[in-house]
Amino acid sequence: MGSTNMSHLNPKIVILIGIPGLQRMQFWIGFPFLGVCLVALLGNTFLLIIIPIERRLHQPMYIFLAVLSATDLGLCVAIAPKMLAIFWFDSYSMAFNACLTQLFFIHALQGMESGILLAMAFDRYVAICDPLRHTSILTTSFLIRVVLMVAIRATVLVGILPILLKRLKFFHSVVIAHSYCEHMAVVKLAAEDVQINKSYGLFVAFAILGFDMIFVFISYILIFQVVFYLPQKEAQIKAFNTCTAHIIVFLEFYILAFFSFFSHRFGHVLPYVHILLSTIYLLVPPALNPIVYGVKTKEIRRRVAQMFVLKSGTQQ
Description:
The chain is mainly alpha-helical. 76% of the residues lie in helices and 4% in strands. It has 10 helices and 5 strands; from the N terminus they run E-E-H-H-E-H-H-H-E-E-H-H-H-H-H. It has helices spanning 26-53, 60-89, 96-129, 134-137, 140-166, 183-187, 195-228, 233-265, 271-296, 298-315, and strands at 8-9, 13-16, 93-95, 170-171, 175-176. The strands form 2 sheets. The protein has a 3-stranded mixed β-sheet with strand order 3-2-5. Helix 3 runs parallel beside helix 7 and helix 7 (195-228) packs antiparallel against helix 8 (233-265). The protein is globular, with a radius of gyration of 21 Å. Mean pLDDT is 88; it is low at 1-5. InterPro entries: GPCR_Rhodpsn, GPCR_Rhodpsn_7TM, Olfact_rcpt, OR51/52/56-like.
């Protein structure tokens, strides 16, 4: 499907073509993405069931993990249905307002995920660097305030993106070379001056992802300083092990996020490579997060095993 040369005034619909250059293979590409989505849905659902019922997991780190799981579920729901409909049923059209709504939820949930990762890093910092004050600092009211602040920050900053897009009237095309509505992909359709949109998009990216990444790095620099000065090797390993799951989740999220972000704005990456990587960035971390924490957390492993044993027992 190609774009036209005519200008579109206040378009009512947009056309999502999926993965440009790989349209003939999209039907088969949809199956691995479906598998990733199912793993994400099952894994995060298990976490949201296990964390409330397992008393040993009623700790700040796992409360933040539950919020992260809810965010990951939201991302899968926001992206997967329309993407798979494009791949399997040639459902290319989408209402322009629905596109802006999807754009908002995708970027707001990304911002929330980044903020929760920063909150988890702060939890590890206090637990290792100031353990005697951990329970007095990370109280229930503090956790609620942190989650609310993360949600409000993402909602307010990202909420301005679709408002700025809505003020644009003329578009040189309504064809989006993507499998979901992404901010810069929509901005590039405009036939007007979009400098404000681009500048504000960069501001939001650095105000959320850049800010959070810097402070996560600072947290771990301080953590490693304390860990390396512990007198016993066993104490060092034990302290480091409490951080490994978060470090893996943090790295997978930010490495993919910044590659996707910069390749879209400044890189010369083939379009289908960028679309594939940006989709992987949004869908793979939600699938990996419950696996990483499930492998590293004994209580989660035990509860999952009990659930499957119980299920197999009732079937017999």
